[in-house]
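Record DUF4352 domain-containing protein, 158 aa.
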Amino acid sequence: MKKAIKGTIATALLLSSLSIWAGVMASNDSAETSHVISKVESSKAGAFEPHGKRPGIKNGTLPTDEKNVSYGFSVPNGFAYGKVWIKNNGKAKLTFTVKNTHFDDIVMSGSVKKGESKSFYVDPNEGWGADNHLIAFSSDENLDGTFSVMCFDNDKFE
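=>
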């Protein structure tokens, strides 16, 4: 009798965990397709290009006819340490956020004054997590500048 009850409980737990996993997978699909990537000035702006053995966006150019623009990118397993570099050639302060699109969490944010460039590093105790991300830029005036997003496999950002 006890074996039958244990078997019934084990089956119920297995089935409930499968339905939870199916719900998580379904939410992954909708999160991945829920954002829109804005138009860019050139075909290479925001495109992934290899940087040594590290994945990342290299030499992205911000469109000069937009006040807001977003780029999607994926952080692979083992490369959760992120660095963002921005050069702001615009007429106003530029702000940015990096958001994990699966959890809808902002994992980095900051601003760069007009005419300046600045590097931002993810908190080494947290990392970005291996997932899909979105970097969004905004300004009160049209954007103008360049940026770089790189992922590293160590907290020395090398």
